[in-house]
Amino acid sequence: MSLLKRLYDWILGWSKSQYCLPALGLLAFAEASFFPIPPDVLLMAMALSIPARSYRYALVASIGSVMGGILGYYIGWGFWDLSQSYFYQYVPGVTEEKFNYIGSLFSEYGFLTVFAAGFTPLPYKLFTIAAGVFNINLYVFILASLISRSLRFFLVATLFFHYGKQAKEYIKKYFNVLSYGVLIVLVVIVVVYKLLS
Question: What is the distance, to the nearest Å, from the Cα of residue 148 to the centroid of all Cα atoms in its chain?
Answer without folding.
Answer: 8
